[in-house]
Amino acid sequence: MLELADLTVLRGACPVVDRVSASVREGEVIGLIGPNGAGKTTLMRGALGLLDHRGTSSLAGLDPLARARAAAWLPQAREIAWGLSVAELVALGRLPHGRDQAAAGEAAVEAALGRMGLETYRDRIATRLSGGEQARVLIARALAQESPLILADEPIAGLDPAAQIATMEVFEAHARAGGAVVTSLHDLGLAARHCTRLWVMDRGRMVADGPPGEVLSEALLAEVFHIRAHFKITPQGPVFQPLSTLDT
Ligand SMILES: Nc1ncnc2c1ncn2[C@@H]1O[C@H](COP(=O)(O)OP(=O)(O)OP(=O)(O)O)[C@@H](O)[C@H]1O
């Protein structure tokens, strides 16, 4: 679904994404983690071809329409500019499909509203919703796009705990249905519980790529995140609790 080979993005002379090679397959929920400024947003924008880059991304060469049909992009900035209703805003996710799929489009919008628990919000003006409600609407718009791959930049930031879990479960369901998700997030507990694989970025490099239980080692948490944490695989699933910072 996505192949990156030596993807590099320069800011001035500085590579903020530095020779990253990775791939995404059907059924995966990839948690893109790393400290602030590690290059997570830049990696996703580079992968989409939204930034000048070296190396290759399988998405970057597609024309905008084909790319939008292949991958939905949920940016970190959540500005909603127009006073549209929630249903109208979610329906904007259908734009890459043109007018020939009107019936399927309505079904997709309804399904997306339902998945994000927004049925009772459909007629509300989106700009008059709370920050977390707006975030859920924008996730619904990305789902309505029905692109196999979703790239989401910190989609659960600012959501309440139930909405965070529900959103990660929506991503898992999208992957189980044959899609895939790459999502950046800072909650390593949710990353460990809901992601099939973690990509760890540090200073532009991808320093680890593997299942959460392998990646979140004491050494990596110290080296990359400068924290000590409690991490255990329990019968209820992985449990992660940051405990303290370490001297750098
Ligand atoms: N437009 C820009 N011009 C110059 N440098 C930039 C620009 N955008 C980002 N950077 C730098 O590139 C690096 C990576 O930024 P990026 O936004 O990809 O980090 P991130 O891992 O997504 O961080 P965060 O967790 O804080 O969102 C940072 O050092 C940042 O300061």
Automatic annotation (TrEMBL):
MF annotations from Gene Ontology: ATP binding; ATP hydrolysis activity
UniProt KW Magnesium keyword: no
InterPro entries: AAA+_ATPase, ABC_transporter-like_ATP-bd, ABC_transporter-like_CS, P-loop_NTPase
Record-annotated ABC transporter domain positions: 2-228
Keyword field: ATP-binding, Nucleotide-binding, Translocase, Transport
Superkingdom per UniProt: Bacteria
Pfam families with a match to the protein in the record: ABC_tran
Function: Part of the ABC transporter complex HmuTUV involved in hemin import. Responsible for energy coupling to the transport system.
Protein known as: ABC transporter
Organism encoding this protein: Thioclava atlantica
